[in-house]
Amino acid sequence: SSGINAEWPLRPGREAMRSELEAKKEVEAVREEMMEMKKEVAWYSLHVAAAAACRGSTASGGTGPWANSVLAKENTRSCADQCADTSSPECDADVAIQGDFGKATSYTAPIGSFYNYGCATPGNTNVQFDEVKATDEGVLEGIGIAYYRFCCCRKP
Prior knowledge:
By secondary structure, the protein is of the alpha+beta class. The chain has helices at 4-7, 12-57, 79-84, 136-141, and strands spanning 69-72, 90-99, 112-116, 148-154. It has a 4-stranded antiparallel β-sheet. The longest helix is centred in the N-terminal third of the chain and has 46 residues, at 12-57.
């Protein structure tokens, strides 16, 4: 090979610098992967909470031979309209949920909040409550996000 590397073999200091740069790149890649996993767990946790909120919001608790559905609520439409566009066309609830970060430290302090807006109207149309339009940072940081909203749908 030619060039400066061929003429001057790597010296210990140069080797160490190259190793340090490679290690920094590896650490950054791991950090990015961990952040992506953190986002996925945050969204998953929110979706499980939404399913639980839907289960608790239905008069029957969700019945029938099929699984009931939870949809991300579009801020400008009613859940009745959204559910009607799916294979689970009956709306049971429009739930808005919010949870606090961290471990509970009290049996009397609230750790989350919820609303049931009903199926007939769009309810609160704040775009920040619309998960599809939200950023990943919102679910991680909770800044400016009061609630996320979901439609609880089932087959008739």
